[in-house]
Amino acid sequence: MFCDEVLDAVDAFASGDPEPDSRVSAHLASCPQCAGALSRAREIEQMLERRPVPEAPPQFTARTVARLRRARWRHEQYLDAGFNIAIGVVLLSIVAGVWMLFNLSGLALVSNDVVGLFGTALLTAASRVEPSLPLYAGATALLLSALGIWWWAERDAAG
Predict the structure, then answer these.
(1) Number of helices (H) and strands (E), helices first, in the chain?
(2) Domain layout of the chain by residue ranges
(3) What pLDDT, in 10s, does the model give residues 43-76?
(4) What is the pTM of this model?
């Protein structure tokens, strides 16, 4: 047994956590330096036990918990920001990849034709619906006024 091994465990032996085994006890009996270190550590332990324990200041627990929550929240905010930046970079790369695919493969020309076709179809549908718009507006106004009266009556009956 070496002094370094015993000296590393002296504080634990002084507080009574583990009891020294036979090898450590034999070394302590034969080595005055280690025995002296153990006796000094026991004296310090006894002095600390005799000393009165100060009371925690008022609101100590609440302030400590609040500080821990703030620190945790701040850490989560940094983590969220990093995650959002990573997702943004991934989405930007996907959009860039699709754009490059459209430009390199000639699909951009086809997509322009598709947009034009949908625009023409939307204009045709709007021109067909246009004569009926006053009828739809009147029906919507009638429905909204009926719902408003019903809400008013229910509110008045419940109160």
Answers:
(1) 6, 0
(2) 3-50
(3) 998 898 888 888 888 899 999 999 999 999 999 9
(4) 0.36
